[in-house]
Amino acid sequence: MIFKNTIENFALIFEACKREFKMIFSDSAVVMSYILSTLAVAFFYSYVYSNEVFTDLPVAVVDSDQTSMSHQISRMIDATPELHAAYTTASLEKAKTLYQEGIVKGIVAIPKGFSRELQKGDVPAISVYGDASYMLYYKQTLTAVMQSVGTLNGQVEIKKMISNGIPMQQAMHTRRPFGIVGIPLFNINVGYATFLIPIVFIIAVQTLQLTAMGILNGTLREKRIFAETFSYARQKFSSVFLTLGRAMAYLIISMVLLLIQIVIVMHVYTFPQRGNLWEIIVFLIPVILSITFLGMIMTSLFRRREDAIMTVTIFSIPTLVLCGLSWPTTAFPVWAKIVSAFIPSTLGVKGFISLSQFGASLSEIRDVYIQMWGLCVFYFVFAVLTNRKYLRKENN
Amino acid sequence: MKKGFFSIFKKEVITIFTTPRLLLLILGVPVLMSFYYASLMDEGVPRDLPVVLLDQDKTKLSRQLGLMLDATPSMKIAFEAAGELEGQKSVRRGDVFAMIIIPKDFQKNIQKGIYSNVTCYYNGDYLLPAGLIYKDFQTAAGTFAAGARLKTLQQGGLTTPEAMATISPVKTDVHVLFNPYTSYSYYLNLSFMPMTFQIVIMVVSIYAFGSVLKYRQGRELFNQANGSIITAIFAKILPYTLLFLIVGIFMNTLLFYRINIPFKGNFFGLNLFFLSFILICQSMALFLASVMSSLRTALTIGGSYAALAFSFAGYTFPPEGLSTFTQYFSYIFPFTSYMRFTVNYAIRGITFNSEQLHYMIALTVFACIGVIGILLYNKKLQKGGYDI
């Protein structure tokens, strides 16, 4: 008897999975938003940001000194990868006009009498005008000028020491008591794509899968055919197996989509992938299942399929921000940390980035993995209840 | 049944205010999202990012350096690692943003004049924390090194100003334009809020135009407008436009008077520009609702179109870093022109010039697409709605 029940329940899981596949692929809007859009977003985003960093930002150098020293500084700035001294002029006004027309993005000014002051041992100053209305322009301008001035300072100091009779080697050593070295890990160019793309993959699958599920479930509710569609699941605990079976379909599709992104897209655009693929798959199972169960729960939130599309789309970018994309999660206010804990992508992205980008092993992020399953079980319970509710509601 | 512009307008207003979910989407969500972003980045610049310190020296000097690093605004020493492996693990787990290593014999080497390195391995993946930590590490360690050198020079008989001039013969005067505190709250809120809002404008407007077609009420609307397509469209959408404008004014007030982003433009002018942006988004919405074959397809396409806009605005990653093709391609999103115009006008205080003119032209193109939308919508209304 028990044996027979088990077989029946397994049969139910496969039946539900099969029918869910059929439903997904028979609605063109669903196929488009779920499968085609996900792949399009993956390729498209990767292409757009594939340059990673930008170089040679045009700046104007206002050289009021016009000495060999000031020319040297201008050349040093031009030689940095970050900046390009597109214009050299003696008038600050001219530089301002160039800036206002968007031709240069920053201004570096060398004051009159710069070389003289330097020779006298007074400390002259180079002025940098960085455009902080676009933060990267500002950062890039500042970094390059600071670096050039640092190098210049070193040259001047060492020259001075050598002229005082200190040998070159010793001069180099006395100048700095110890070396200061900063080494970026994982994203060695500190590039935009390497940082953004893995996060976008998870968010895209979450957003578009939820949209698709919203359309499907909304259709069932709008046409009042929910119970009818799943009429083959009438036994006592069948809503549990129905939920599992339906989830299986999404698990398979989303896993394939994510694997295409991880294996093909990341390879094509040469993004680093340092994780063990099997461990990544094992980690992604509860991530996708959480998203799927959340999608089933949303059935009761949205009576019309349009509501689901609108809401999920609007919240896509805010959830992206919750993953710590633009603002580090450690600096979040408490309420934001609590809210973000309930969104599958938050933990999902954290774990996925650790595995695929930072090269952690699954056992090193054990706690994240366990929490992910916790969230999954939490949503599973509500998903079963939701499915049961609609099976019964329309039967009566 | 009453007919004409005002009757359609009134009916739509009643629909909006008696449909809680619509009201929630139009008013609730944008307001909620604005507060969400404002509160999220309230600090302006992230402080006390956790880093791990591996002090292999454990002397007075290495401790001093550790304290100095901990005292920087961006870094907080979350814990001291017992060994390199432990430190590496916490970096890989993403618990800390960097590992700083002070080598063995650090103090001894400095006293002996032997060169050794203090190294900061920072996670380059999180761009903002990476930048802040790298800068503060350079500054703190640099100051520490300069302090040690200053002492040596003074002991050699130089006065303090002389010693300072020896260490850094040239100063850098940094002028931060337009965002004096380099606040990320100013920077990101300015784009996040309108970006989320334009998605709302897009999907709600598509819904407003498309639901008529979905429920096949096209002929009714057409008759109610006395057969004038212009009346039908404007009366239908005007209530939404007005509500969006109110939310827009609220958003701009929040940005420039509550968050206090330094503002160089005229508040009335800015809101007038925002109104034109709303109309342009709605033109696109009209076009998409008319050209697609079903409401859900229109919403999916329109929603993705609006959601993708942010990545192409060239705001957090400037256009110089995109390929030439993408640079031009990015103009197919009205948000690109909106964002650049707003930054130039409100933040930089640039008077109208040739660059601004380009953005205006780009926006006008969308208005023309809206005109095509009117023609297509007319056809669909005559038919009654979407084909099923």
TrEMBL record, chain A:
Subcellular locations according to the entry: Cell membrane
Membrane-crossing segments per the record: 28-48, 247-271, 277-296, 308-327, 368-386
InterPro entries given in the database record: ABC-2_transporter_component (IPR051449), ABC2_TM (IPR013525)
GO molecular function per UniProt: ABC-type transporter activity
Pfam families xref list: ABC2_membrane_3 (PF12698)
UniProt domain ABC-2 type transporter transmembrane: residue ranges: 32-385
Keyword Cell membrane belongs to the record: yes
Coiled-coil region list: none
Membrane-topology descriptor: Multi-pass membrane protein
Keywords from the named record: Cell membrane, Membrane, Transmembrane, Transmembrane helix
GO cellular component, one term: plasma membrane
Keyword Cell membrane on entry: yes
Database matches in PANTHER family: ABC TRANSPORTER PERMEASE (PTHR30294:SF46), MEMBRANE COMPONENT OF ABC TRANSPORTER YHHJ-RELATED (PTHR30294)
Name this protein carries in UniProt: ABC-2 type transport system permease protein
Record organism: Myroides indicus
TrEMBL record, chain B:
GO molecular function per UniProt: ABC-type transporter activity
Location of the ABC-2 type transporter transmembrane domain: 22-371
Pfam families registered for this protein in UniProt: ABC2_membrane_3 (PF12698)
GO cellular component, one term: plasma membrane
Locations listed in the record: Cell membrane
Transmembrane segments: 21-39, 186-209, 229-255, 267-291, 298-316, 359-377
Membrane-topology annotation of the record: Multi-pass membrane protein
Keywords: Cell membrane, Membrane, Transmembrane, Transmembrane helix
The protein's name in its UniProt record: ABC-2 type transport system permease protein
Organism: Myroides indicus
